[in-house]
Amino acid sequence: MQQRRAKVFPVFLLFFFIALILFFLSQKGLLNGPDGILEQVTIPLQRMFFALSHSVSATTNNNILQHLRDENQTLAKQLVAQTELEKENAALRDQFQTRTPSPATLIPAHVIGMIGFVPGVSMPSALLIDQGTASHLKKGDAVVVRNNLVGTLSEVSARSAKVALLTQGTTSFTAQTLHTSALGIIKPENDALVLENVVLSDKLQIGDLVFTKGDMTDTTQIPPGLVVGKITSVNRESSSLFQTAQVESLVDVSGLEMVFVITK
Amino acid sequence: MLFVLLLLVCSAVFLEGTVTTLPLVFVLLLLMTIWQRSSIVFIFAFFAGVVLDMLQLQIPGETSLFLLVFLFFVLLYERKYEIDSLPFVAIAAFVGSLLFCGIFGYSSMWAQAVIIMGLAIGGFLLGKLLRNQKRVEGFL
After folding, report:
1. For the whole model, what pTM was predicted?
2. Which of A25, A134, A148, A241 is 20 to 30 A off residue B54, Cα-Cα?
3. Which chain B residue is nearest to residue A122, measuring alpha carbons?
């Protein structure tokens, strides 16, 4: 026992210090080069795992497809590949038919991971996509699906990026309602979106759509005219200076396979 | 055996990095520590942690540090407690995943900790069953 412990301790110390050095070097940004090289290997694998998991969940929801797969595995493999291509094509067609944001400023990206996602338990807090600084993406860029705002880039590496969803993190921006033109600030609160700082003289309606007003700062690049969501409830108290509203996004983030990043 | 463990850890790393953020690598390494009780788990913990950080765009090394320290504590207490027991596995998995989710800022940490505890208990019982079967076959 004592002998084994004597063997275990030096190995622990060795790897502990290597990890510590790695951590500090990464924090200083000295490992960006090797990171990028390793990403070239890991991203295709990550994408394959993600696509596989999505195709598995899609087949469990479809008995006919399941039956076909059981009958002929080779055919099923082709079917999955074709379905993915069709989905990708449909997403691209949809996105490029949308006038705002301009297609020229969009970078298509595949979702390769969902952070904080436990099916049936919790929704994702962030998405991982397979595009990075190599595609001229930068921190703060807006991420959309059609003209729905999904989030902003919070971390960008050479070939991947992390999308902080609107309901998480600290991103806040100005927004306006569609019918009543009430102005306010969208902020995340308890995994939901809240439209705050709306003056009492403005009218808020349940079901009204909320659009971005446009926030182009150093840290966030959110263009105007993107759909944030629709109002599900209004909190108005005459004693308060402002009224607030709960806003629900129109996008089911857990089902996303492709998103688009708006670049300048 | 080592190849199977490597395959399991690799699968867990990619599952955790893409499909779900349940700390699957943590629970697998915990079970490995309890069964193997050797320094090889530190090597697995280090590399799995680094790859996991890169997949999730975290600072490389932070997951490795957590895994290394936690597994070291498990091995440190092997003389004081019977670590190859169901209560220890359940408590270590629950507390460890709670700490893991808390430190790395995951949502629904209580729910994740309960799920991980269930997975650890299931894995532990399955491992015990397989080991008993092997022992019986060896005896026959």
Report:
1. 0.72
2. A148
3. B108
- Of A16, A46, A117, nearest to B55 by CB-CB distance is A46
Same domain for A93 and A50?
A: yes
Q: ω into residue A188 within 30 of 0, thus cis? A: no
Tokens representing A83?
A: 């379905």
CATH number, domain at A226? 2.40.10.350
Cβ contacts (< 8 Å) between B21 and chain A: which residues? 114-118
Does residue A232 sit within a domain? yes
Q: Is the peptide bond before A103 cis (omega within 30 degrees of 0)?
A: no
Whether residues A79 and A209 fall in one domain = no
Contact between A12 and B38 using a beta-carbon 8 Å cutoff: no
Range of the domain at A217: 173-248
pLDDT at A76: 46
- Would the pLDDT of A20 be above 80? yes
Going by C-beta distance under 8 Å and a sequence separation of 6 or more, which residues neighbour residue B53? B59, B60, B61, B62, B63, B64
Residue A158: what pLDDT?
83
In a shared domain, residues A102 and A219:
no
Residue appearing with tokens 């193997």: B36
Tokens representing A116 are 């904080």
* Nearest chain B residue (CA) to A12: B42
Cα-to-chain-centroid distance, residue A192: 15
A133 in the same domain as A81? yes
